[in-house]
Amino acid sequence: MSTQQATSSRNSPTLVLVTLFFGVFVMGCAELLVVGVLDLIAADLRVSVSAAGALVTSFALGIAIGGPAVTMLTMKMNRRTVLIGAIIVFVLANLVLVVASDFGVFVAARFVAGAVEGLFIGIAFVTGMSIVPPERAGRAISMIISGVTVSAAVGVPLGTLASQGLGWRGSFTTIIVLCVVALIATVALVPSVPGTGRGAAGQAKYAFAPRVLAMLSLNVVVFASLYTALTYIVPFLRNVTGVTGAVVSVFLFAYGLATAVGSFGGGRFADRNAAGTLIVATTGTAIALLALYFVGSIPILVALVLLAWGMLAMSMAPSLQLRVLTLAGPGGGLASSLPASAVNVGIAAGSAAGGVAISDFGPSSPMLTGAIIAAIGIVLAWATSYLKPPVIEQATEPAGRPS
């Protein structure tokens, strides 16, 4: 038994994973809640809706840039201490949103919140993997990463609904209360997990090795494909499928639930064969997006394809994270936060690509564009399946996970 496993054996791994899931879920709700109340915030702060969109951008930049930066600064610290500190800073950042009225302060607070969310998620992955046997690492990752998908599927719609009665500041106050619950649970249930003995320089050569960068490029392509289509799914449903009003919400809710199911179930596939899972799932998403393009005018078929697409797309998430951590070997502590950065790069690239497509070729074109990007993902998934972890990890890093 490793030092980390021995340290954590006094606590139920299931309870620890549920605690980490809840922390990620609450942070995910806070991240995406802004989208549902953007017009309310803009009116209250007397800025345009387009200017208020900077609150979304700053959070994404916080995850992409701030997350890896603060991870580098905290690598030698006890994982439990880092998780607790991240929640405390997250609470303070959201408290700023409740009490402040200066838009510039809002933007800065959102960047800080994004940075500590990126930190929390990365450290949660490392902590979760340390308390389970190697053959269950993928399932541990899937439990934690499902906090993001469940927050998108359930938490955000509920939060947006609550804002109608509580106001947008009241909704963020609710987030703060839930964060305090997550903080108490983390203090009570998450065990002490020692940090790495290597500093940033010692881990960087492994975390940024070509094999890891190749896997991160697959992360970018996978999420670029997803968000090329997903960003413009509402215009597609309205103009091509012909559904409007509340029916659109039903389609989106079904898709959200499918992503949650996919992320939960994807852990088992990651444990069996993470590299093979990525080949199958990228192929499946390409086919699903092509199907949307060709059957977009038939509502029942669109609904079925959305379910399949959601499950396939998010079933890859645990395998992507596990492969990055595995290939990083001794640099896994630093590498744990890099997939979140790659995901945000992919989201930005995909949204831009979809925007160009829909402007030039109409509402169905983001589906076809997403399918083309997914095809590139198939090639990358196949190529990266041959990558192997550094040999040194077997001798110096017993916590490494074979894929």
From TrEMBL:
<feature type="transmembrane region" description="Helical">
    <location>
        <begin position="364"/>
        <end position="383"/>
    </location>
</feature>
<feature type="transmembrane region" description="Helical">
    <location>
        <begin position="240"/>
        <end position="262"/>
    </location>
</feature>
<dbReference type="GO" id="GO:0005886">
    <property type="term" value="C:plasma membrane"/>
</dbReference>
<feature type="transmembrane region" description="Helical">
    <location>
        <begin position="140"/>
        <end position="160"/>
    </location>
</feature>
<keyword id="KW-0812">Transmembrane</keyword>
<feature type="transmembrane region" description="Helical">
    <location>
        <begin position="300"/>
        <end position="317"/>
    </location>
</feature>
<keyword id="KW-0472">Membrane</keyword>
<dbReference type="InterPro" id="IPR011701">
    <property type="entry name" value="MFS"/>
</dbReference>
<dbReference type="InterPro" id="IPR036259">
    <property type="entry name" value="MFS_trans_sf"/>
</dbReference>
<feature type="transmembrane region" description="Helical">
    <location>
        <begin position="172"/>
        <end position="191"/>
    </location>
</feature>
<dbReference type="GO" id="GO:0022857">
    <property type="term" value="F:transmembrane transporter activity"/>
</dbReference>
<dbReference type="Pfam" id="PF07690">
    <property type="entry name" value="MFS_1"/>
</dbReference>
<protein>
    <submittedName>
        <fullName>DHA1 family inner membrane transport protein</fullName>
    </submittedName>
</protein>
<feature type="domain" description="Major facilitator superfamily (MFS) profile">
    <location>
        <begin position="16"/>
        <end position="389"/>
    </location>
</feature>
<feature type="transmembrane region" description="Helical">
    <location>
        <begin position="82"/>
        <end position="101"/>
    </location>
</feature>
<keyword id="KW-1003">Cell membrane</keyword>
<feature type="transmembrane region" description="Helical">
    <location>
        <begin position="50"/>
        <end position="70"/>
    </location>
</feature>
<dbReference type="InterPro" id="IPR020846">
    <property type="entry name" value="MFS_dom"/>
</dbReference>
<feature type="transmembrane region" description="Helical">
    <location>
        <begin position="212"/>
        <end position="234"/>
    </location>
</feature>
<dbReference type="InterPro" id="IPR050189">
    <property type="entry name" value="MFS_Efflux_Transporters"/>
</dbReference>
<feature type="transmembrane region" description="Helical">
    <location>
        <begin position="12"/>
        <end position="38"/>
    </location>
</feature>
<keyword id="KW-1133">Transmembrane helix</keyword>
<feature type="transmembrane region" description="Helical">
    <location>
        <begin position="107"/>
        <end position="128"/>
    </location>
</feature>
